[in-house]
Amino acid sequence: MRIMMAAAVAAVALGTGGVAQAQTVEVRVDKLEREMRAVQRKVFPGGAGQTVEPQITPEVNTVVPGVPASSPLADLTQRVSSLEGQLATLTGQVEQSQYRLRQLEDAFNAYKAATDARMKGFEAPRAPAPGAAVTGDTAEVDPAPETASRPAPARPAADKPAAKPTGARAQQLAAVAKPSSGDPAEDAYTYGYRLWQAKLYPEARAQFETVVNKYPQHRRASYSQNLLGRSYLDAGAPSLAAVAFYENYKKNPNGERAPDSLYYLADALTKLKKPSSEVCKVYNELSQLYGDRLSAEMKAGVAEGRATNKCK
After folding, report:
1. Separation of alpha carbons 292 and 81, rounded Å
2. Which one, 45, 140, 161, 236, has the greatest CB density within 10 A?
3. pTM of whole model > 0.70?
4. How many Cα atoms sit within 13 Å of 164 on the Cβ side?
5. 48-74 as b/e: b if 16+ CB within 10 A
């Protein structure tokens, strides 16, 4: 009798434990289903019944004849554990994909900002006023000055001599005559032009900057800003030359040397090995805005430059 009662108690205890274990598995399955649906919403935001099939490796029958198989509850628990592991792996892959997507978006936005800033550098200015043909920078008298005043172009960094020249350079400077016409802007430009011809570029740039910054409304401001760029270009500094040329063209498009600056800007960009598309854009604007003011020599230079860069 006692043995039968013990067996009955054991059976009840075993049944209670099995029910509790089954309930635990059911809770895990419910949680797993909710998480899987959440992952599917991330992977397939459009829905439309798309699902992710769990990659569960088919079980291999390893039951040895005569040996009792594992219980169905143990098998279900093992499969749930496998599903939970695969769900964690899938969730990690989704998070990695989202991180990489954010990186790509950040890189694209940075590239777009840099490209927009570069393209704004070639924005079209106001149409220039008609004038005489451009023949190059000289110290001779040219057509009437402009009627509208413009703000002074920004000056690039200059490499003025740190100390008073001595020796042979001092003799070269002494050989360049200083004009005295009573017009300080005209005199500074003419003296700078003579220094530029003598290839005394730092001293020439100092004179051109004086005109640009002290006399921005003078007609020689356009000449000086253009020769400032040419002195940089002749000295082997095309990047500073490009800045000076573009400032003259952008801020004083009606200036008498704005076409020259646009022409030499293309030359500076070529020396900087910029893409042909940028050089061609400069040539296009030069021909469109100042085509009737270019000398025969500059027109030939434009044609040669367009052919070299294969401009359309």
Report:
1. 82
2. 161
3. no
4. 2
5. eeeeeeeeeeeeeeeeeeeeeeeeeee
User: How many Cα atoms occupy the beta-carbon half-sphere of 259 within 13 Å?
Assistant: 26
Per-residue three-class SS string for the chain: CHHHHHHHHHHHHHHHHHHHHHHHHHHHHHHHHHHHHHHHHHHCCCCCCCCCCCCCCCCCCCCCCCCCCCCHHHHHHHHHHHHHHHHHHHHHHHHHHHHHHHHHHHHHHHHHHHHHHHHHCCCCCCCCCCCCCECCCCCCCCCCCCCCCCCCCCCCCCCCCCCCCCHHHHHHHHHCCCCCCCCHHHHHHHHHHHHHHCCCHHHHHHHHHHHHHHCCCCCHHHHHHHHHHHHHHHCCCHHHHHHHHHHHHHHCCCCCCHHHHHHHHHHHHHHCCCCHHHHHHHHHHHHHHHHHHECHHHHHHHHHHHHHCCCC
